[in-house]
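BUG: 3D viewer hangs when loading the predicted structure for this chain

Environment: internal workstation, default settings.
Expected: structure renders.
Actual: progress bar stalls at 90%.

Input used:
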Amino acid sequence: MTPLRASARLVFVSWLILSTLFCGLAARTISQTGLDYDEAVYGHLAKDFLLDRSCPQHMPGSESIEIAGRPFPLFVQGYLGGFKCWMLIPSFTIWGTSVAVMRWTMVAVALLGILLLMLWVRRTWNLPAAVAVGPLTAFDPSFFFPSICEWGAFVPSFLCRCAALLCLALWWEKRHIIWISLAGAALGLGFFNKIDFLVVIAAIGAAAFVSVPRELVVVIRQSWKHCLAGLLVLVLTSAPMIWNSLRWLRSLVEVQTGERSGELTTKVNVIKAALDGSYFHRLMEVGGLFHRMFERPASFVSVFAVALGFSLLVLIVKAVRYPQCRWPRFCLIGLLVTALGFLLLPEALRIHHFLLVYPFPQLIVTGAAVVLWQDARSAGKIVAAVAISGILLSHFANLWRTQRFIAATGGRGQWSMALTQFAATMKDRDDVMLVSLDWGFHEQLSFLTEKPQCFDPTWNLQAGKPIALLPDPKCHYLLHPQDFSLFPYGEQFLQMARESGRPTELTSITNLEGRVVFQFFRFKAP
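Structure tokens produced before the viewer hung:
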């Protein structure tokens, strides 16, 4: 067995161990965390295709094309392709449509991305770095929770960027057109998945150019046909998004030139919360209301953030002292470009936007640890071992703390398990209509139920179009209490119902801590 194959086998074994532990931890989150609106929309679109039904009330910009007479999801929103929906369709076909199947599918895709990342690091650097970068990435709470409760199309993006890196490395070594074509497909699908993937493409290109500028120019000249083929595949696989971007160009320009006060402060808070592992815990505390996430400090231990700062210094010194060493430059430029992309993108205010920088932070920490470990002095080895161990221990502690909070509360607001349990009681009832008067109901209920009619008038209300309450006892009007409400329509229409003179009843649903997480009202039968 060649050394390369032996090291690949070791990478695969370490990945299997990592995956087993990841799945063991993920099972708790999958079963105890409520379903969010943005997570449910992908499952709803995939379910519509399988059941051959059309829902006219998906998010604005959602588009489907007819395949075999069924609505096949093409776009979830104007800037967000249906790639994740495509991933869910085979799983739903085999195992049925459920939250568990949707989340386990994303776990499998995320772990596949980790494997491709480890194989790429092993091929472009060394085995110790490959073995280290896997757990550092997988058990980072900012990677772990979005990979399970996946609401920002991060997992397909992560898979595409890791696949592209590995395929580009294989093409660089073997010069076979299949590898650069596959890399082009991965990059194209990443862009189709979400338009902000352009930041990742720019980062990989800039990092490669700075790392091997002369070699890159020579290779492009010698293999220009291969490069052209890869570019063609990229364009073909991302063609729907390219076309949609042109259609939405005016809207994109308006976003770029619009009011953006306060964005930088929010982005700095997002970076802090992502690096210290508190982001998902904060989101759970406020019931999914992003604008309230940073009202209180989270008091999480930020070992990874400290290690990243130290690692940046180590790799900068390494890059300056040993300019022939490519790896530090690639990682540093990759992090720089993706971080700048996150900061400059308008309205990129969520963790799935910041995760454009992954896996560069983990690569930098891994790189610094390997540099220190290879130092002849024992002090370097001790620092490297303590740093990696400390990061992983803090990751596991923060994971467990967040999971314990979710288990104790049953979730709050838009993430509450109470909504899932309510949907189970309504699943097969054809004598009810579920009307959502706030964000955080419609897509979940549409995905989790079979027979009730589900309506979401909030889009019309935001557009200034009036709606009227239907005084039918079968209509259940859902709203959040003030603590978890995003829109004011629920309270407004509840007041209108009470002032109408018709008898109404209001039912409050609580979570495990006894807090009201949502309510519904309906008119009583005469």
